[in-house]
Amino acid sequence: LITLYFEDVDQAGHRYGPHSEEVAQAISKLDEAFGRLLSGLKARGLDEKTFILLVSDHGMAEVKRANRIRLKNYIQGSEDRIVGKGALSLVWPKDENAKLNILERVKKLPGHFKLFKKESIPERFHYSEHRRIAPLVFLADEGWYLDSGVLPSLKPEVFGLHGYDNDNKNMQAIFVWKGPGVQSGNKVGEVQNVDIYSLLAHLLKVEPANHDGKIGRAHV
Questions:
Q1: Which of 60, 105, 106, 200 has its CA 20 to 30 A from that of 148?
Q2: Cα–Cα distance between 119 and 131 in angstroms, integer?
Q3: What is the pTM of this model?
Q4: Residue 97 exposure: Cα atoms within 13 Å on the Cβ side
Q5: Pairing between strand 81-83 and 175-178?
């Protein structure tokens, strides 16, 4: 098992936005590197006996600097703790009264985001039981970003972010694979990232640990 991670497209997407010329150049660079890998396997007589999985861990959405959500409009207590910014922010209010104040401010000044109480986070997120999940979770609408700073944003005029609702098409990624017994040109349905572990265990003929993936979604 050999794993490779190419960071060029992710870095360019964050810095310049997913529709930028810089992203196109990064994709071209990745295409060349992947071509070298396939050519090297073929030269060594390994191309017909090697499984290749090409995946991405997330998509990328374009964001404008002006689309800023100031968390300080809602979280004003000095002892309230904010962790994270961008698409998702976790908030630990100092006490129950502070939590109610935040909820009331959001009610009076709704914005381009959703605010979830830990116990009411949608089940499909699988994000509600762990102790590190905050009592309040802010999730920005795609194209907007959460910022806890008080000074003007230093973001570029246009940049890229991920971490939004994974039902959004721009957050979805790719899954391409080839290898012995895999029929060229076939299309699979939805494959979730948690399924990849199950598929790898199957290909390596090892017993997987307990996990949430389903190998059937990859149509092995």
A1: 60
A2: 12
A3: 0.89
A4: 2
A5: unpaired
DSSP states of 71-109 as a string? GGGT---TT-EEE--BSEEEEE-SSHHHHHHHHHHHHHS
Instruction: Calculate the alpha carbon distances from 189 to 165, 203, 216, 219 in Å.
Output: 19, 19, 10, 8
Is residue 6 helix, strand or coil?
coil
With CA atoms as reference, report the closest residue to 51 among 213, 205, 172: 205
- In DSSP notation, 138-196 reads EEEPTT-EEE--SSPP-S-SEEEE--S-TTSGGG---EEEE-TTPPTT-------TTHH
Cβ pair 67, 112 in contact under 8 A: yes
Question: In the predicted model, what is the mean pLDDT of residues 44-70?
Answer: 95
Residues 6+ apart with CB under 8 A from 20: 12, 13, 158
Q: Report how far residue 201's alpha carbon sits from residue 97's, in angstroms, rounded to the nearest whole number.
A: 48
Residue 156 Cα distances to 15, 52, 60, 186, angstroms: 8, 36, 16, 41
Residue 90 in tokens: 């976790």
Structure-derived torsion over alpha carbons of residues 39, 43, 46, 48, reported in degrees to the nearest 10: 70
* Centroid of chain to Cα 56: 9
3-state secondary structure of 111: coil
Q: Do residues 142 and 61 make contact, with C-beta atoms less than 8 angstroms apart?
A: yes
DSSP state of 3: -
Query: Which residue in this structure is represented by tokens 């904010």?
Result: 82
